[in-house]
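Re-running the complex after MR caught last week's input typo. The corrected sequence lines follow. Everything else is unchanged.
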Amino acid sequence: MAPAEIAESELLLQTFERRFLAARVLRSFPWQSLEEKLKASSDSKLLLHLLQKPSGDAVTLRESTAIIAHGTTGLVTWDAALYLAEWAMQNPATFTHRTVLELGSGAGLTGLAICKACQPRAYIFSDGHSHVLEQLRQNIILNGFSLELDVTIEPEHPTVTVAQLDWDTGTGPQLSAFQPDVVIAADVLYCPDAILSLVGLLKRLSGCRKDQRPPDVYVASTIRNPETPQLFTAQLGQAGISWEAVPPHDRTLFAYEEHWEVVVLKLTL
Ligand SMILES: C[S@@+](CC[C@H](N)C(=O)[O-])C[C@H]1O[C@@H](n2cnc3c(N)ncnc32)[C@H](O)[C@@H]1O
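Corrected-run output:
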């Protein structure tokens, strides 16, 4: 197939995928374009791609239709959350039998995917915004997890908790109560204030473990401009936190909205 044809086919596949994920009625799918493409193509690759989409456990989410609502960006899922979830599913050992603290969980996609696919021992969702926390609790329950503190329903299910954790006001004792082995965050570096608050919190987190072993930290960010990641890495340097970029992976599992690059940084506190 010529490059232009491949691009057209990919767009068509993406439209099918998005409509499927958004549970649109079947008649709204681009059947006519598919028929035309299939008639014009000499092989059945397009049909195979369409039929061989990955299947498995699903995450169900209630989300806002607006990207900013109630003064927060946390009521929708951002691409970095999808990217981090996809990375986690390819690297489950990072989370298996470990206690995970997520900062700025938003709608909960990454954490729910990790809880379903990576067998963490405990998962602490957190956010600073009360509307976000309310929706997050609903999404966790919607996906079959219990929110009762310290209760494990079945051995393979993690203990799931939700914490109100503001990066500016989260105290040492509050952070010590979590005892995380791994800390993750997706799309949390969107303005200088957020970066300063987050780095401050990471610094306080570094000494919070009883065994003095700092948690592994993974931060996924969409690169929308060069200044924001530069400010983040400069602040990390000032705080004495070293970092390395995690090798990129192909985005195949989800219907990503944006075409910006997404990177995951692994931090050493
Ligand atoms: C762009 S959203 C990302 C949500 C989710 N991680 C995702 O990628 O879909 C940023 C999230 O960080 C939270 N947040 C921003 N500043 C915060 C702060 N100072 N303390 C705690 N949470 C904060 C917001 O409430 C929001 O849920």
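None of the earlier attempt is carried over here. The chain has two domains: 3-51, 79-268. Residues 79-268 form a domain with the Rossmann fold fold (CATH 3.40.50.150).
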